[in-house]
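Re: the request from the purification team.
They wanted to know what the chain is likely to look like in 3D before they choose a buffer screen. I agreed to run a prediction and write the result into the notebook, where they can find it.
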Amino acid sequence: MVAGPTPTVLMEGIGLGESPRWHDGRLWFSDWVAHQVIALDPDGRHEVVAEVDAFPFSMDWLPDGTMLITAGRELLRMEPDRSLALHRDLRDLSGYGWNEIVVDGRGNAYVNSVGFDLMGGEKPKPGLIAIVTPEGEARQVADGLAFPNGMVVTPDDSTLVVAESYEGRLTAFDIADDGGLSNRRVWADQGEGGDGMCMDADGAIWSPKFQRCIRIREGGVVLDELELDRFCFACMLGGDDGQTLFLNVAEWNGPEGIFREPRTGQVLAVEAPAAHSGRP
């Protein structure tokens, strides 16, 4: 296990940054508290790209460049004029809001739901993963997940890995030609945590672990570890060479605490040992 360098702060004053994505030379992420999609330049300049009336929400891009956003019980898409339109109503698949999204190379959008009302204090229930195909078909493809969170798809579109936050493990599925998921297995047991994550060219995954972010190999060997002064909620590899690790961090005092002032969310950046690979 190797301790990494100290990250630099690119942006502060964020409510709760989540779901970072590197796209078109910028880091895009959700601020769940401000209900904004923000695009951040490597030099720290930022732009509010969309306002989303939902909590939580996440985004990714179809192969043709169309951005999809999970918003409550709906999947939205961004039109060329940056307005948001309904892409698919998903309330028939879950009575709760949709959390994370990842789009594979075939254009299949995988979305997950934790399966209970976290903010309402409801007792935890198993969550699920659904798929929305390029033809607009939506169906459930996995269930029984302990708070499904961040997801990655391998570069060859053969495997989907999802973080089960309440079990502290990363769970893998084989992806069938029709987008279905099978052969569920433990990809790695990281002991605790798990949230928005990304894969690198060595096949390792960067995954949040409370006030740390670890680089973990299939089977559970931890290759690198970053110690942080606040909780890490998500990470993404990007930059011109794909080798900058961006981290969304914030102080955490329970679900209600994220709405308090001051807003403690930050975007951090640090050089990583391997470049980005896979999706998102």
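For the purification team: The longest strand covers residues 181-189.
Please add any questions underneath this entry.
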